[in-house]
Amino acid sequence: MAGTTEINKPFSPEETRRIMHHLQQPAVFLNMTCDWPVLNWTAEHLSSCLGDKLIRFRLGRKEKTKAPAPLFETQCSYVEASVAQFLSWTQGQSGTDVGPFSEYSYSEYWAYADYKYIAMLFQDQPFMFEHVKWSEFGFEGRNGRESTLWIGTEGANTPCHLDSYGCNLVLQVQGRKRWHLFPPEDTAKLYPTRIPYEESSVFSQVAVLHPDLRRFPAFHGASEHIVTLQPGQVLYVPRHWWHYVESVDPITVSVNSWIELEVDDIARVGEALTKTVVCAIKSARSDDNTDNWLNPTEEDVTSHNENMQYLNLAVRAWAQKQRSSCHSKLSPEFGDTCRVKRDSGGQIKKNSDRVRNSAPFSIPYGPHLISIRCQQELRRMTPEDVEVNSSRNSAVRSQEDCTVSSDPAQTTKFAAAVRLDQRTHECNAGSTRCRKCDCADGTSENLSEDYKASTHTTITTNDLLDCLVHPDIITRVAELLLEKHTGSDTTTCSS
Question: What is its main location (predicted)?
Protein backbone atom coordinates (compact mmCIF):
# COMPACT_ATOMS: atom_id res chain seq x y z
CA MET A 1 0.00 0.00 0.00
CA ALA A 2 1.29 3.47 -0.88
CA GLY A 3 2.53 5.55 2.00
CA THR A 4 3.49 2.62 4.22
CA THR A 5 7.04 1.63 5.03
CA GLU A 6 7.94 -1.96 5.73
CA ILE A 7 10.14 -2.27 8.79
CA ASN A 8 12.80 -4.94 8.71
CA LYS A 9 12.95 -6.85 11.98
CA PRO A 10 16.21 -8.42 13.20
CA PHE A 11 14.58 -11.87 13.30
CA SER A 12 11.80 -13.42 11.24
CA PRO A 13 8.90 -15.13 13.08
CA GLU A 14 10.40 -18.53 12.30
CA GLU A 15 13.85 -17.47 13.51
CA THR A 16 12.43 -15.95 16.70
CA ARG A 17 10.51 -19.07 17.57
CA ARG A 18 13.54 -21.22 16.90
CA ILE A 19 15.66 -18.99 19.14
CA MET A 20 13.16 -19.33 21.99
CA HIS A 21 13.09 -23.08 21.58
CA HIS A 22 16.85 -23.21 22.18
CA LEU A 23 17.08 -20.58 24.93
CA GLN A 24 17.84 -22.12 28.32
CA GLN A 25 17.90 -18.87 30.27
CA PRO A 26 16.04 -15.52 30.18
CA ALA A 27 16.83 -13.16 27.33
CA VAL A 28 15.64 -9.79 26.06
CA PHE A 29 14.60 -9.18 22.45
CA LEU A 30 15.27 -5.65 21.17
CA ASN A 31 13.99 -3.81 18.08
CA MET A 32 11.19 -6.31 17.48
CA THR A 33 8.13 -4.24 18.44
CA CYS A 34 8.79 -0.72 17.14
CA ASP A 35 5.72 -0.82 14.86
CA TRP A 36 3.33 -2.53 17.30
CA PRO A 37 0.32 -0.27 18.06
CA VAL A 38 0.30 -1.60 21.63
CA LEU A 39 3.29 0.65 22.38
CA ASN A 40 0.76 3.51 22.45
CA TRP A 41 -1.04 1.86 25.37
CA THR A 42 0.13 4.27 28.03
CA ALA A 43 -2.01 4.56 31.14
CA GLU A 44 -3.46 7.80 29.76
CA HIS A 45 -4.39 6.15 26.46
CA LEU A 46 -5.92 3.16 28.26
CA SER A 47 -7.95 5.54 30.40
CA SER A 48 -9.49 7.10 27.30
CA CYS A 49 -10.19 3.66 25.79
CA LEU A 50 -11.71 2.14 28.92
CA GLY A 51 -13.63 5.20 30.11
CA ASP A 52 -15.56 4.52 33.33
CA LYS A 53 -14.95 0.74 33.19
CA LEU A 54 -13.99 -0.48 36.65
CA ILE A 55 -11.02 -2.78 37.12
CA ARG A 56 -9.55 -4.29 40.26
CA PHE A 57 -6.40 -2.76 41.76
CA ARG A 58 -4.27 -4.41 44.42
CA LEU A 59 -2.73 -2.07 46.99
CA GLY A 60 0.20 -2.72 49.29
CA ARG A 61 1.99 -0.64 51.90
CA LYS A 62 5.34 0.55 50.63
CA GLU A 63 6.96 -0.05 54.00
CA LYS A 64 6.08 -3.75 53.86
CA THR A 65 8.16 -4.12 50.71
CA LYS A 66 11.18 -3.58 52.94
CA ALA A 67 10.17 -6.30 55.39
CA PRO A 68 12.08 -9.62 55.55
CA ALA A 69 8.93 -11.50 54.51
CA PRO A 70 7.03 -11.55 51.21
CA LEU A 71 3.91 -9.44 50.86
CA PHE A 72 1.51 -11.99 49.42
CA GLU A 73 -1.67 -11.03 47.59
CA THR A 74 -3.75 -12.30 50.52
CA GLN A 75 -2.21 -9.53 52.65
CA CYS A 76 -3.07 -6.68 50.27
CA SER A 77 -6.06 -4.37 49.99
CA TYR A 78 -8.27 -4.18 46.88
CA VAL A 79 -10.39 -1.52 45.19
CA GLU A 80 -12.55 -1.37 42.08
CA ALA A 81 -11.73 1.82 40.18
CA SER A 82 -11.32 3.28 36.71
CA VAL A 83 -7.93 3.97 35.19
CA ALA A 84 -8.86 7.68 35.23
CA GLN A 85 -9.33 7.53 39.02
CA PHE A 86 -6.04 5.67 39.31
CA LEU A 87 -4.24 8.39 37.36
CA SER A 88 -5.82 11.17 39.43
CA TRP A 89 -4.63 9.39 42.56
CA THR A 90 -1.06 9.19 41.25
CA GLN A 91 -1.20 12.93 40.53
CA GLY A 92 -2.03 13.79 44.13
CA GLN A 93 -5.68 14.67 43.59
CA SER A 94 -8.38 13.83 46.11
CA GLY A 95 -12.13 13.61 46.59
CA THR A 96 -14.45 12.11 44.00
CA ASP A 97 -11.75 12.31 41.31
CA VAL A 98 -9.89 9.36 42.86
CA GLY A 99 -12.92 7.29 43.88
CA PRO A 100 -12.06 4.45 46.32
CA PHE A 101 -8.37 5.41 46.22
CA SER A 102 -9.27 8.26 48.59
CA GLU A 103 -8.87 5.84 51.51
CA TYR A 104 -5.23 5.20 50.65
CA SER A 105 -2.37 7.68 50.80
CA TYR A 106 -0.33 7.70 47.60
CA SER A 107 2.81 8.33 49.65
CA GLU A 108 2.19 5.16 51.67
CA TYR A 109 0.75 2.73 49.13
CA TRP A 110 1.51 1.35 45.71
CA ALA A 111 -1.24 0.12 43.38
CA TYR A 112 -1.29 -2.65 40.80
CA ALA A 113 -3.88 -3.76 38.25
CA ASP A 114 -2.45 -7.19 37.49
CA TYR A 115 -3.59 -10.23 35.50
CA LYS A 116 -6.13 -8.19 33.51
CA TYR A 117 -7.22 -10.20 30.50
CA ILE A 118 -7.30 -8.07 27.39
CA ALA A 119 -10.01 -10.34 25.95
CA MET A 120 -12.29 -9.27 28.79
CA LEU A 121 -11.19 -5.64 29.09
CA PHE A 122 -11.78 -4.93 25.42
CA GLN A 123 -14.51 -7.44 24.60
CA ASP A 124 -16.51 -4.58 23.06
CA GLN A 125 -13.43 -3.28 21.20
CA PRO A 126 -11.98 -6.42 19.58
CA PHE A 127 -9.90 -4.37 17.16
CA MET A 128 -7.61 -3.68 20.12
CA PHE A 129 -6.51 -7.32 20.07
CA GLU A 130 -4.64 -6.71 16.83
CA HIS A 131 -2.41 -4.12 18.52
CA VAL A 132 -0.41 -6.98 20.05
CA LYS A 133 1.49 -9.02 17.45
CA TRP A 134 2.86 -12.17 19.04
CA SER A 135 2.61 -13.68 15.54
CA GLU A 136 5.93 -11.93 14.86
CA PHE A 137 7.46 -14.19 17.52
CA GLY A 138 6.41 -17.26 15.56
CA PHE A 139 2.95 -17.89 17.05
CA GLU A 140 0.65 -17.44 14.10
CA GLY A 141 -2.67 -15.78 14.87
CA ARG A 142 -1.69 -14.97 18.45
CA ASN A 143 -2.46 -11.43 19.59
CA GLY A 144 -3.92 -9.47 22.50
CA ARG A 145 -6.81 -11.90 22.89
CA GLU A 146 -4.39 -14.36 24.51
CA SER A 147 -2.58 -11.72 26.58
CA THR A 148 -2.85 -9.95 29.93
CA LEU A 149 -2.37 -6.32 30.91
CA TRP A 150 -0.51 -4.95 33.93
CA ILE A 151 -0.71 -1.33 35.19
CA GLY A 152 1.15 -0.23 38.32
CA THR A 153 2.88 2.48 40.29
CA GLU A 154 6.44 2.57 41.55
CA GLY A 155 6.97 -0.20 44.08
CA ALA A 156 4.12 -2.38 42.80
CA ASN A 157 5.34 -5.95 42.74
CA THR A 158 4.52 -9.58 42.15
CA PRO A 159 5.75 -11.99 44.88
CA CYS A 160 8.53 -14.32 43.84
CA HIS A 161 7.04 -17.41 42.21
CA LEU A 162 7.34 -19.86 39.35
CA ASP A 163 4.62 -20.68 36.83
CA SER A 164 3.81 -24.36 36.57
CA TYR A 165 2.81 -24.11 32.93
CA GLY A 166 4.52 -22.85 29.82
CA CYS A 167 6.98 -20.07 29.14
CA ASN A 168 6.36 -16.33 29.28
CA LEU A 169 6.73 -13.43 26.83
CA VAL A 170 6.59 -9.95 28.39
CA LEU A 171 6.44 -6.66 26.49
CA GLN A 172 7.20 -3.48 28.42
CA VAL A 173 5.01 -0.62 27.18
CA GLN A 174 5.43 2.27 29.65
CA GLY A 175 7.98 2.82 32.40
CA ARG A 176 10.46 0.22 33.56
CA LYS A 177 10.19 -3.00 35.53
CA ARG A 178 12.97 -4.83 37.28
CA TRP A 179 12.95 -8.62 37.10
CA HIS A 180 14.79 -10.85 39.57
CA LEU A 181 15.00 -14.35 38.07
CA PHE A 182 16.27 -17.67 39.39
CA PRO A 183 16.72 -20.96 37.48
CA PRO A 184 14.58 -24.06 38.16
CA GLU A 185 17.52 -25.82 39.80
CA ASP A 186 17.40 -23.19 42.58
CA THR A 187 13.93 -24.29 43.69
CA ALA A 188 15.16 -25.67 47.03
CA LYS A 189 16.99 -22.40 47.72
CA LEU A 190 13.78 -20.43 47.13
CA TYR A 191 11.87 -22.42 49.81
CA PRO A 192 8.72 -23.16 47.78
CA THR A 193 5.25 -23.04 49.29
CA ARG A 194 1.69 -23.50 47.99
CA ILE A 195 0.21 -21.25 50.66
CA PRO A 196 -1.34 -18.98 49.59
CA TYR A 197 -2.78 -21.40 47.06
CA GLU A 198 -3.14 -20.40 43.42
CA GLU A 199 -3.38 -22.90 40.61
CA SER A 200 -0.21 -22.94 38.51
CA SER A 201 1.77 -20.64 40.83
CA VAL A 202 4.39 -21.88 43.31
CA PHE A 203 5.39 -19.07 45.66
CA SER A 204 8.69 -18.53 47.44
CA GLN A 205 8.83 -17.92 51.19
CA VAL A 206 11.82 -15.63 50.68
CA ALA A 207 11.58 -11.84 50.48
CA VAL A 208 13.97 -11.53 47.56
CA LEU A 209 14.93 -7.88 48.16
CA HIS A 210 15.37 -8.29 51.92
CA PRO A 211 15.94 -11.99 52.58
CA ASP A 212 15.95 -13.37 56.11
CA LEU A 213 19.06 -15.52 55.77
CA ARG A 214 18.69 -16.94 59.26
CA ARG A 215 15.38 -18.53 58.29
CA PHE A 216 16.35 -19.22 54.68
CA PRO A 217 20.14 -19.69 54.60
CA ALA A 218 20.20 -21.62 51.31
CA PHE A 219 18.99 -18.53 49.47
CA HIS A 220 22.52 -17.22 49.93
CA GLY A 221 23.61 -19.53 47.11
CA ALA A 222 20.79 -18.80 44.67
CA SER A 223 21.84 -17.82 41.14
CA GLU A 224 20.11 -14.49 40.67
CA HIS A 225 19.62 -12.94 37.22
CA ILE A 226 18.47 -9.30 37.20
CA VAL A 227 17.23 -7.19 34.33
CA THR A 228 15.47 -3.84 34.10
CA LEU A 229 13.08 -4.05 31.18
CA GLN A 230 12.60 -0.88 29.14
CA PRO A 231 9.67 0.17 26.89
CA GLY A 232 9.62 -1.70 23.59
CA GLN A 233 11.68 -4.62 24.86
CA VAL A 234 10.39 -8.19 25.18
CA LEU A 235 11.60 -10.50 27.93
CA TYR A 236 11.53 -14.25 27.38
CA VAL A 237 11.13 -16.21 30.62
CA PRO A 238 11.80 -19.95 30.14
CA ARG A 239 9.69 -22.65 31.76
CA HIS A 240 9.85 -22.92 35.55
CA TRP A 241 12.12 -19.91 36.09
CA TRP A 242 11.37 -18.16 39.38
CA HIS A 243 10.74 -14.42 39.18
CA TYR A 244 10.07 -11.43 41.39
CA VAL A 245 8.92 -8.34 39.50
CA GLU A 246 8.79 -4.72 40.68
CA SER A 247 7.86 -1.44 39.01
CA VAL A 248 10.64 1.13 39.25
CA ASP A 249 8.97 4.14 37.57
CA PRO A 250 5.96 6.23 38.68
CA ILE A 251 3.65 4.44 36.22
CA THR A 252 4.31 1.20 34.38
CA VAL A 253 2.32 -0.70 31.76
CA SER A 254 3.22 -4.12 30.37
CA VAL A 255 1.59 -6.89 28.35
CA ASN A 256 2.42 -10.58 28.57
CA SER A 257 1.35 -13.91 27.16
CA TRP A 258 1.94 -17.38 28.58
CA ILE A 259 2.83 -19.90 25.89
CA GLU A 260 1.74 -23.47 26.52
CA LEU A 261 4.29 -26.24 26.02
CA GLU A 262 3.69 -29.89 25.25
CA VAL A 263 5.65 -30.84 28.35
CA ASP A 264 2.99 -29.11 30.46
CA ASP A 265 0.73 -32.16 30.34
CA ILE A 266 2.35 -33.90 33.29
CA ALA A 267 2.48 -30.57 35.14
CA ARG A 268 -1.31 -30.38 34.84
CA VAL A 269 -1.55 -33.72 36.62
CA GLY A 270 0.74 -32.35 39.32
CA GLU A 271 -1.38 -29.22 39.70
CA ALA A 272 -4.52 -31.33 40.00
CA LEU A 273 -2.81 -33.39 42.72
CA THR A 274 -1.70 -30.27 44.54
CA LYS A 275 -5.16 -28.74 44.48
CA THR A 276 -6.72 -31.95 45.79
CA VAL A 277 -4.29 -32.21 48.71
CA VAL A 278 -4.28 -28.50 49.63
CA CYS A 279 -8.06 -28.13 49.55
CA ALA A 280 -8.60 -31.34 51.52
CA ILE A 281 -6.19 -30.40 54.30
CA LYS A 282 -6.89 -26.67 54.49
CA SER A 283 -10.65 -27.25 54.50
CA ALA A 284 -10.37 -29.45 57.59
CA ARG A 285 -11.14 -27.87 60.94
CA SER A 286 -8.00 -27.23 62.95
CA ASP A 287 -6.75 -24.70 65.48
CA ASP A 288 -4.09 -23.47 63.06
CA ASN A 289 -6.23 -23.64 59.93
CA THR A 290 -7.58 -20.14 60.30
CA ASP A 291 -5.27 -18.30 57.89
CA ASN A 292 -6.34 -16.69 54.63
CA TRP A 293 -4.85 -19.44 52.48
CA LEU A 294 -6.72 -19.03 49.17
CA ASN A 295 -5.20 -16.48 46.79
CA PRO A 296 -7.64 -13.76 45.64
CA THR A 297 -7.16 -14.92 42.03
CA GLU A 298 -8.98 -18.16 42.94
CA GLU A 299 -12.76 -17.92 42.89
CA ASP A 300 -13.65 -20.39 45.63
CA VAL A 301 -12.66 -23.58 47.42
CA THR A 302 -13.69 -26.56 45.29
CA SER A 303 -15.04 -29.77 46.79
CA HIS A 304 -13.06 -32.99 47.00
CA ASN A 305 -15.34 -34.58 44.40
CA GLU A 306 -14.67 -31.73 41.96
CA ASN A 307 -10.94 -31.94 42.57
CA MET A 308 -10.89 -35.70 41.97
CA GLN A 309 -12.83 -35.21 38.73
CA TYR A 310 -10.25 -32.62 37.66
CA LEU A 311 -7.42 -35.02 38.55
CA ASN A 312 -8.95 -37.84 36.50
CA LEU A 313 -9.47 -35.51 33.55
CA ALA A 314 -5.81 -34.44 33.74
CA VAL A 315 -4.62 -38.06 33.81
CA ARG A 316 -6.80 -39.01 30.85
CA ALA A 317 -5.65 -35.95 28.89
CA TRP A 318 -2.00 -36.85 29.54
CA ALA A 319 -2.56 -40.47 28.46
CA GLN A 320 -4.35 -39.36 25.30
CA LYS A 321 -1.59 -36.90 24.42
CA GLN A 322 1.04 -39.58 25.07
CA ARG A 323 -0.64 -41.97 22.65
CA SER A 324 -0.95 -39.22 20.05
CA SER A 325 2.65 -38.06 20.48
CA CYS A 326 4.08 -41.56 20.35
CA HIS A 327 2.12 -42.29 17.22
CA SER A 328 3.24 -39.13 15.42
CA LYS A 329 6.74 -38.98 16.99
CA LEU A 330 6.35 -35.35 17.95
CA SER A 331 9.01 -33.52 19.90
CA PRO A 332 8.10 -31.87 23.24
CA GLU A 333 8.27 -28.24 22.12
CA PHE A 334 5.74 -25.43 21.98
CA GLY A 335 2.29 -26.98 22.30
CA ASP A 336 -0.38 -27.44 19.70
CA THR A 337 -2.52 -24.97 21.58
CA CYS A 338 -1.12 -21.75 22.96
CA ARG A 339 -3.29 -20.81 25.88
CA VAL A 340 -3.12 -18.12 28.50
CA LYS A 341 -2.32 -19.16 32.02
CA ARG A 342 -5.92 -18.96 33.18
CA ASP A 343 -9.21 -19.01 31.28
CA SER A 344 -9.55 -15.58 29.69
CA GLY A 345 -12.97 -16.12 28.21
CA GLY A 346 -11.53 -15.53 24.74
CA GLN A 347 -11.28 -17.98 21.87
CA ILE A 348 -8.05 -19.94 21.88
CA LYS A 349 -6.41 -20.57 18.56
CA LYS A 350 -4.21 -23.47 17.57
CA ASN A 351 -0.70 -23.41 16.22
CA SER A 352 0.15 -26.44 14.15
CA ASP A 353 3.61 -25.32 13.13
CA ARG A 354 6.55 -26.56 15.15
CA VAL A 355 10.21 -25.87 15.43
CA ARG A 356 11.94 -29.06 14.40
CA ASN A 357 15.22 -30.25 15.80
CA SER A 358 17.89 -29.90 13.19
CA ALA A 359 21.57 -29.02 13.01
CA PRO A 360 23.36 -27.55 16.06
CA PHE A 361 22.05 -24.08 16.70
CA SER A 362 24.01 -21.07 17.92
CA ILE A 363 21.89 -18.46 19.70
CA PRO A 364 22.49 -15.10 17.95
CA TYR A 365 23.26 -12.92 20.97
CA GLY A 366 24.12 -9.36 20.03
CA PRO A 367 22.50 -5.94 19.71
CA HIS A 368 19.04 -7.48 19.15
CA LEU A 369 19.14 -10.30 21.69
CA ILE A 370 20.63 -9.86 25.15
CA SER A 371 21.36 -12.68 27.57
CA ILE A 372 20.47 -12.07 31.21
CA ARG A 373 23.60 -13.02 33.06
CA CYS A 374 23.88 -14.55 36.50
CA GLN A 375 24.84 -12.18 39.29
CA GLN A 376 26.84 -14.79 41.20
CA GLU A 377 30.29 -13.75 40.00
CA LEU A 378 30.59 -10.78 42.35
CA ARG A 379 29.20 -12.84 45.22
CA ARG A 380 32.35 -14.92 44.98
CA MET A 381 34.57 -11.90 45.58
CA THR A 382 36.67 -12.07 48.72
CA PRO A 383 36.14 -9.77 51.72
CA GLU A 384 39.25 -7.88 50.59
CA ASP A 385 37.47 -7.02 47.33
CA VAL A 386 34.21 -5.84 48.81
CA GLU A 387 32.89 -4.51 52.08
CA VAL A 388 31.50 -7.50 53.94
CA ASN A 389 28.13 -6.86 55.57
CA SER A 390 25.59 -9.09 57.24
CA SER A 391 22.77 -7.60 55.17
CA ARG A 392 22.44 -8.07 51.42
CA ASN A 393 21.05 -4.59 51.03
CA SER A 394 23.94 -2.91 52.79
CA ALA A 395 26.52 -4.79 50.76
CA VAL A 396 28.54 -2.77 48.30
CA ARG A 397 27.15 -2.78 44.76
CA SER A 398 27.57 -0.53 41.79
CA GLN A 399 24.27 -1.19 40.02
CA GLU A 400 21.97 -4.05 41.00
CA ASP A 401 20.40 -4.56 37.62
CA CYS A 402 21.33 -5.49 34.12
CA THR A 403 20.01 -2.57 32.09
CA VAL A 404 19.23 -3.29 28.47
CA SER A 405 18.84 -0.41 26.07
CA SER A 406 16.87 -0.47 22.85
CA ASP A 407 19.69 1.54 21.32
CA PRO A 408 22.03 -1.05 19.76
CA ALA A 409 24.96 1.34 20.10
CA GLN A 410 24.60 1.59 23.84
CA THR A 411 26.71 -0.81 25.83
CA THR A 412 24.79 -3.34 27.87
CA LYS A 413 25.71 -2.96 31.50
CA PHE A 414 25.85 -5.85 33.86
CA ALA A 415 26.50 -5.59 37.56
CA ALA A 416 25.82 -7.73 40.57
CA ALA A 417 24.36 -7.49 44.01
CA VAL A 418 26.80 -8.92 46.50
CA ARG A 419 25.25 -11.23 49.01
CA LEU A 420 27.76 -11.87 51.79
CA ASP A 421 26.27 -12.77 55.14
CA GLN A 422 27.61 -14.12 58.40
CA ARG A 423 24.86 -16.59 59.00
CA THR A 424 24.86 -19.01 61.90
CA HIS A 425 27.26 -21.95 61.54
CA GLU A 426 28.92 -20.59 58.40
CA CYS A 427 32.52 -21.74 58.54
CA ASN A 428 35.59 -19.82 57.46
CA ALA A 429 37.41 -21.27 54.47
CA GLY A 430 40.19 -23.61 55.51
CA SER A 431 39.08 -23.76 59.12
CA THR A 432 36.88 -26.10 61.13
CA ARG A 433 35.89 -23.32 63.53
CA CYS A 434 32.58 -21.59 62.80
CA ARG A 435 32.11 -17.83 63.15
CA LYS A 436 29.09 -18.18 65.43
CA CYS A 437 30.36 -21.13 67.49
CA ASP A 438 32.99 -21.58 70.16
CA CYS A 439 33.59 -25.25 69.39
CA ALA A 440 36.25 -26.30 66.91
CA ASP A 441 33.88 -28.81 65.30
CA GLY A 442 31.23 -26.18 64.70
CA THR A 443 28.77 -27.37 67.36
CA SER A 444 27.24 -25.15 69.98
CA GLU A 445 28.47 -25.44 73.57
CA ASN A 446 24.93 -25.00 74.87
CA LEU A 447 23.49 -28.20 73.40
CA SER A 448 20.75 -28.47 76.01
CA GLU A 449 19.30 -25.08 75.06
CA ASP A 450 19.45 -25.95 71.36
CA TYR A 451 17.68 -29.23 72.06
CA LYS A 452 14.95 -27.50 74.06
CA ALA A 453 14.38 -24.98 71.28
CA SER A 454 14.07 -27.69 68.64
CA THR A 455 11.73 -29.87 70.69
CA HIS A 456 9.40 -26.93 71.39
CA THR A 457 8.94 -26.12 67.69
CA THR A 458 5.36 -26.79 66.68
CA ILE A 459 4.71 -28.26 63.25
CA THR A 460 1.83 -26.37 61.64
CA THR A 461 -0.56 -27.48 58.92
CA ASN A 462 1.26 -25.22 56.48
CA ASP A 463 4.59 -26.78 57.46
CA LEU A 464 3.12 -30.17 56.65
CA LEU A 465 1.79 -28.94 53.31
CA ASP A 466 5.15 -27.44 52.35
CA CYS A 467 6.50 -31.00 52.50
CA LEU A 468 3.52 -32.86 51.05
CA VAL A 469 3.08 -30.62 48.02
CA HIS A 470 6.72 -29.68 47.51
CA PRO A 471 7.31 -29.53 43.72
CA ASP A 472 9.75 -32.47 43.83
CA ILE A 473 7.30 -34.62 45.78
CA ILE A 474 4.34 -33.75 43.58
CA THR A 475 6.35 -34.51 40.44
CA ARG A 476 7.23 -37.97 41.74
CA VAL A 477 3.70 -38.72 42.94
CA ALA A 478 2.33 -37.66 39.54
CA GLU A 479 4.75 -40.03 37.82
CA LEU A 480 3.73 -42.91 40.07
CA LEU A 481 0.07 -42.18 39.54
CA LEU A 482 0.43 -42.10 35.78
CA GLU A 483 2.48 -45.30 35.71
CA LYS A 484 -0.11 -47.07 37.84
CA HIS A 485 -3.25 -45.92 36.07
CA THR A 486 -2.08 -45.70 32.46
CA GLY A 487 0.52 -48.46 32.35
CA SER A 488 2.98 -46.06 30.74
CA ASP A 489 6.41 -44.82 31.72
CA THR A 490 6.26 -41.01 32.04
CA THR A 491 9.67 -40.60 30.45
CA THR A 492 9.33 -42.74 27.35
CA CYS A 493 6.67 -43.71 24.83
CA SER A 494 5.38 -47.24 25.10
CA SER A 495 5.75 -49.20 21.91
Answer: cytoplasm
